[in-house]
């Protein structure tokens, strides 16, 4: 029998309602039982095969059956980031209201390229809120929601490349890059995120255009080395054009000295871009706010509400201080999209003139509901709580003789190593043990942790982003690592 249905359910809205209730039940059951589930549990080979090789049916499958399939085969193997003991990378749990907003955004399913409809005004509103929350100047600036932090930096740095070419008297959009132009140089620290490297490559500048600057003891960009790098590049005939600072590095949460960098950019005629994908909202914690001084002086800022703000993925945001410049960088309106300002569907200048995407999703709704449901105070308390939990983890590590912290804690990331007494001084063995702990803890399902390298030394890394994480979870993390570490050592 064919289950063919009208995909819009226009002939059976009550069935759609029942399916919606089933979906909400599924989401609620999943979220409310998450603590009882393993944080992560690896898929078996047959389970992987089943998903990889599923056949597309000829006649369709009843939606009720498909929802049951999702429950039994998809929800059984989550990534794990909804769990309060997930400390990996920078992947937050979804804000529950954000889940509902995604459903409602898809219900309207607008393109947020532009036009005179509610979604557009809401996006302008939430972008302004983000500017205000982070002290980014809002008067002549603009911003737009994008897929994530990488796309936000790509958008901002495309503007930076356009800006410098214009200053140097060439039109990058028309002429592109050519060998007669001086090599453009961009500066970022050793701790700069890989998306900056990918961006520079995508912009056609080549990875040689990145001058990687060493860091100081706190993993912040080394200012003296930066100044020397700029001087050396100028002497060699290159054109320094941009510093990319981190406001919360992915490894340790370090925040580069933004005011000093803004001074250097003013002196040297450089664009200052800040990658705040993970950490910019750390500014909402009054205890951390002074570290972000200078944020109002930057040319562009990448933020990522789908990280620390728990807006369901995907939701990044690019902010650029010069609205006109961003439009010049991206605007290309073919005849079929032309509207007359102030008439018909036109509305405000279109977002699609300020970024790469033409059809754009309604990301603003999930961001709007998260921000407005928390309010300024709620957001600040939440971020402060995560930072306090990170300090708590750091203090536990500092008091346990078999643990060693390897970086300062500025925000909600803690980097450390398990160093049992019998391995003291034996660096290769410590490294091997800590590397082995990561997959073992992930497979255990008891907690989820990832690792990284700091100055060529391997470190365990815990990032706290979940509102349900407690001090007991933090204490349990230490115990789990110790137990797993001891088991690995015994078996070695
Ligand atoms: C500091 C930093 N920048 C950029 C990114 C990339 O953001 P996205 O993964 O949203 O593209 C990340 C991701 O973790 C990050 O932590």
Automatic annotation (TrEMBL):
Residues with PTM N6-(pyridoxal phosphate)lysine: 307
InterPro entries in UniProt: Aromatic_deC (IPR010977), PyrdxlP-dep_de-COase (IPR002129), PyrdxlP-dep_Trfase (IPR015424), PyrdxlP-dep_Trfase_major (IPR015421), PyrdxlP-dep_Trfase_small (IPR015422)
Lyase among keywords: yes
GO biological process: amino acid metabolic process; carboxylic acid metabolic process
Cofactor(s) this protein requires: pyridoxal 5'-phosphate
Keywords tagged on the record: Decarboxylase, Lyase, Pyridoxal phosphate
Source species, domain of life: Bacteria
GO MF terms held by the record: aromatic-L-amino-acid decarboxylase activity; pyridoxal phosphate binding
Family: Belongs to the group II decarboxylase family.
Protein name in UniProt: Amino acid decarboxylase
């Amino acid at each position: 029998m064919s289950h063919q249905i009208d995909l819009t359910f226009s002939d059976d809205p009550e069935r759609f309602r029942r399916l919606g209730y089933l979906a909400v039940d599924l989401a609620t059951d999943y979220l409310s039982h998450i603590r009882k589930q393993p944080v992560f549990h690896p898929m078996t080979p047959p389970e992987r095969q089943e998903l990889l090789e599923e056949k597309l049916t000829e006649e369709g499958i009843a939606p009720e059956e498909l929802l049951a399939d999702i429950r039994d085969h998809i929800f059984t193997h989550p990534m794990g980031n909804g769990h309060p003991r997930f400390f990996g990378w920078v992947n937050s749990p979804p804000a529950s209201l954000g889940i509902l907003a995604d459903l409602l955004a898809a219900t309207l399913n607008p393109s947020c390229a532009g036009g005179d409809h509610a979604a557009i005004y809401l996006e302008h509103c939430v972008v302004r809120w983000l500017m205000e929350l982070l002290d980014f100047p809002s008067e002549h600036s603009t911003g737009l929601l994008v897929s994530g932090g990488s796309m936000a930096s790509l958008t901002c740095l495309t503007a930076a490349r356009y800006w410098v070419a214009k200053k140097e008297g060439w039109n990058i959009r028309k002429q592109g890059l050519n060998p007669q132009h001086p090599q453009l140089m961009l500066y970022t620290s050793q701790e700069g995120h890989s998306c900056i490297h990918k961006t520079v490559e995508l912009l056609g500048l080549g990875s040689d255009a990145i001058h990687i600057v060493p860091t100081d003891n706190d993993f912040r960009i080394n200012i003296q080395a930066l100044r020397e790098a700029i001087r050396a590049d100028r002497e060699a005939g290159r054109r320094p054009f941009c510093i990319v600072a981190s406001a919360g590095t992915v490894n340790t949460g370090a925040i580069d000295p933004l005011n000093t960098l803004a001074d250097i950019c003013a002196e040297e005629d450089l664009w200052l871009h800040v990658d705040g994908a993970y950490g910019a909202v750390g500014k909402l914690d009054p205890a951390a706010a002074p570290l972000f001084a200078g944020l109002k002086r930057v040319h562009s800022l990448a933020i990522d509400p789908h990280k620390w703000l728990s807006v369901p993925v995907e939701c990044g945001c690019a902010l650029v201080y010069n609205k006109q410049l961003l439009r010049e960088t991206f605007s290309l309106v073919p005849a079929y999209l032309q509207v007359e300002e102030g008439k018909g569907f036109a509305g405000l200048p279109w977002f699609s003139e300020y970024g790469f995407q033409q059809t754009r999703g309604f990301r603003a709704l999930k961001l709007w509901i998260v921000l407005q449901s928390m309010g300024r105070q709620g957001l600040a308390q939440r971020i402060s709580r995560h930072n306090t939990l990170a300090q708590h983890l750091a203090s536990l590590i500092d008091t346990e003789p078999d643990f060693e912290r390897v970086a300062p804690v500025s925000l909600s990331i803690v980097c450390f190593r398990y160093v049992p007494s019998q391995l003291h001084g034996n660096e290769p063995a410590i490294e091997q043990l800590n590397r082995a702990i990561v997959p073992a803890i992930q497979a255990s399902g008891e907690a989820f942790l990832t690792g990284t390298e700091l100055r060529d030394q391997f470190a365990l890394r815990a990032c706290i982003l979940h509102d349900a994480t407690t001090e007991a979870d933090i204490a349990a993390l230490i115990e789990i690592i110790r137990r797993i570490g001891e088991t690995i050592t015994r078996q070695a």
